[in-house]
User: Which sequence fits this backbone?
């Protein structure tokens, strides 16, 4: 069954109103070609809006255990590298980390899901720029939320919802102290974006560059 995420229902409602007005205007335009163009525009806008805000059901792997870090969103792996943490967050400033980044195109599902079980130990919203999401500078310069989860064994994962050039709206339902379950929805980034996942150096990365991943289904890494 086709489902629209409740994170996008405000946008969908606005688009329905706009398209209804365009449709009514098209009925009163005497020029046939103009009428056709407007009707095609309505079909395109509504189709894209419903498609973008789709929210398919997802099932975590049958063999899931708490050491697995699942993809927080759909997209393509655009970066895997060793980094030095640039600020104090879930990890101390200056700590060596592994970063895995997922680029979400406007055609991907944009609902985000928790990558692991645990408790939210860190949450921060940061205002910033709107560089294109595949520019790796966007990790530190764009508007974003940073969320850190720690499980019952003390294993940590920090992940970021990063707005892109088109995306201008990040939605996140999480806050410090929340208990979360792997695969559950927690928010979305509207219209093109990126998700970064930061792990300790001994994490075993299970994906490679340019892999296509699915939120809640693809195992990104094994946390140790």
Assistant:
């Amino acid at each position: 069954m086709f489902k629209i995420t409740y994170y996008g229902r405000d946008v969908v409602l606005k688009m329905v109103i706009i398209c209804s007005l365009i449709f009514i205007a098209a009925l009163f335009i005497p020029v046939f070609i103009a009428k056709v163009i407007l009707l095609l525009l309505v079909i395109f806008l509504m189709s894209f809006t419903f498609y973008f805000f789709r929210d398919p059901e997802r099932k975590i792997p049958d063999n899931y255990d708490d050491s697995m870090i699942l993809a927080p969103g759909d997209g393509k792996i655009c970066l895997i590298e060793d980094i030095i943490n640039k600020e104090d967050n879930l990890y101390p400033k200056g700590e060596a980390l592994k970063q895995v980044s997922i680029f979400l195109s406007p055609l991907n599902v944009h609902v985000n899901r928790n990558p692991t079980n645990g408790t939210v130990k860190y949450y921060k919203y940061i205002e910033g720029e709107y560089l294109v999401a595949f520019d790796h500078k966007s990790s530190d310069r764009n508007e974003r939320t940073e969320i850190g989860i720690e499980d019952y064994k003390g294993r940590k994962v920090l992940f970021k919802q990063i707005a892109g050039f088109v995306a201008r709206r990040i939605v996140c339902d999480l806050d410090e102290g929340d208990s979360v379950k792997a695969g559950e929805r927690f928010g979305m980034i509207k219209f093109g974006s990126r998700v970064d996942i930061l792990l300790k150096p001994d994490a075993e990365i299970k994906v490679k560059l340019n892999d296509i991943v699915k939120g809640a289904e693809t195992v990104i890494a094994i946390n140790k």
